[in-house]
Write a structure and sequence with these properties.
Beta Polymerase, domain 2, six-stranded mixed beta sheet, 4 helices, about 35% helix, ribosomal large subunit binding, Ribosomal silencing factor RsfS, translation regulation, repressor
Length: about 120
Amino acid sequence: MKDSRSLAKEIAIAASEKKGRNIVLLNLQEVSLIADYFVIVSAGSSTQVKAIADSILKKLREEDIVPRSREGYQEAQWILLDYGGVVTHIFQEEQRQFYDLERLWGDAESEQFQGS
């Protein structure tokens, strides 16, 4: 099993390959028991939100890594993929601004993903 940081980076790479924007890794290890990392991604449309989620699911499934849960896929405004130590949030921009997870988890170390 991959460590949480490696998994978070792999998820970020898969998201960037589908043109995910403003990809942020939040390191929650010192501030929460919910997860070690959040990966937060923006997309321009519900179609792109689903494409990013599908890319992540496919890439990790190839390594026999499956999410514990998946939420929001039908509406595709905000899809959550829970991989245990890493929770991925794929938002349409309006929802990302509304929920503002980066502010909510402001005590977490934040890293802007710059690509592979």
